[in-house]
Amino acid sequence: MAAQAVSVLITGANRGLGLEMVKQMVEGSRPVRKLFACCREPAGPRAEALQTLAKQHPDVIVVVRLDATDLCSIKLCAQQVGSVVGTGGLNLLINNAGIMVKATLQETTTEDMQNTFNTNAIGPMNIIKEFLPHLRAAAKASGITGMSSSKAAVVSIASFLGSLANVKQSYDMFSAVSYRISKVGLHMLIVCAAEELKTDEILFSLIHPGWVRTDMGGEEGKIDAPDSVKGLLSVMASLTEEQNGAFLSYQGNTLPW
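Request: output the structure for the sequence above.
Response:
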């Protein structure tokens, strides 16, 4: 039986991992009905590559404004997506948008912490809440048993820097205190969501993309975005209820909290 076409939303889709996910999804073998590619300034210069890609796939890619720190923006985006997907709902929501301040504890300011937490933890919380009706609709409409990213799922891009078990081995190389703390918050958010919404059969998982050579990861990264995203999408496609609330690597391995 042919795979069911899915509707997907990706935040932070104008560059780095987000843009590469859009590219690989529309060019891959998994059928995508609609792909909502979200970013803060769709008409801005940093979204030119995304807009070019959207013009190449006008029937699939829908570029939508979404600022993870602006609740009004999130609500409007949810309304726009709902008007397109209707009762079929949204099958896969990928929380990818994030910011990083590379500072030690002594260098980190209150503003650094607030801004990072607003984008990396509070943003995903509000996005999940506003898109929940569309995820529930997808779960009901899918006709698929169990949990999967073809049915209804929220995948959040996690980080090993948010692992308490990894602090000692990684801190000297990459302090980024506000980023680390925000990712711990994101990790807890997703585990709580997985528990609270399990009866809705919406899957929640965290996936660490590796240390990627992007604007955020820097040139010292260990892998390029295409390789990371290839792994990320493969893991997403394989998710089941057994990985609900899991913290995984882009290679599919379970990571320590």
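The radius of gyration is 17 Å.
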